[in-house]
Design a protein that fits this description.
Layout (H helix, E strand, L loop, with lengths): L2 H10 L4 H8 L3 H7 L13 H15 L4 H15 L7
Length: 88
Amino acid sequence: MSPDQFRAWRIRLGLSLTGAAELLGVSRRAVAMYQAPATSSSRRDVPGTIARLCIATETLADLGVDIATLRQELDEIVALEAGAPVIH
């Protein structure tokens, strides 16, 4: 996934840098680096796992899944797997 494709994905889903970072489980800085132009010294390649997650979330959004709800449900699953209490 190129930086332009990553940026386009974020915009199509209506996500801010922070929103994309929270959904993907990465830092806001990582999101900014993934979509930085190729000429930028801070640019980083989008990892394959992140690219696949982008494709999956966009597919789910196309099917009518609310991305905010999806993020909350994913957070709950991660918390349960870690043995942490789930706070609603």
